[in-house]
Structure prediction request, 246 residues.
Amino acid sequence: MKTIILAAGYGTRLYPLTKNKAKALLSVGNRTLIDFTVEKILEILPQDNIIIVVSNSRFYADFLRWKEAYSEKAKIAILDDGSTNVEDRRGAVGDIYFAVEKESIKEDILVMGSDNIFDWRLDGFLEFAHAKSTPTVGLYDLEDYDKARRFGVAEIDTENKIVSFLEKPQNPPSTLISVCLYYFPQDSLSLIEEYLKKENSRDAAGSYIKWLSEKTKVYGYVFKGKWLDIGHKDSLEKAKSIFATD
Prediction:
């Protein structure tokens, strides 16, 4: 299995903090956001399976310097997707496909965002996904319909199969939201290319999940614990109060 981490977009909600620094390289205590993501992967997977896709070329060199701290812990590939502005960005789905093609991946993949921070392990998710042997989405219950509007929202049946998935709906059918954590088995990777050829929405991974769940079985795994999406300054400060170790 390979892990693809999506990093360094064009988000401005954290300006001026992200004007000259990628969001994933912002500090939470004595670690960066992407440190938390990588450490969660290294708890359970081999040290040579991590691929980071940088979706804003101006931050590529920063990630290369960041990678030096992991030289003895893990072998990490840093890919520059070539995007230099909002207009030519590949989008989340495009970057997943870019990594699969660039690295000639012919095995299962785990896809993670670099701006989430959480306290759970990934063992249960992967065990569930491997047992289903079909695309699987990491979910979290916000228990708040108003907050759920800002995310991809899933409805699941009694077997955790996704029966509907909506990206940022005005009237969420549930409070189960995607935490930008996906498992795609090797035999499903060709569907990413099929989607990109047919659909225009490349940026929101949730749009792909909606399309995929209408085409094949997709399951959801509900995580329990602490989770934050670092989309605003207040969530970054909250992360520091909960997750900082120094």
Summary: The chain has a mean pLDDT of 91.
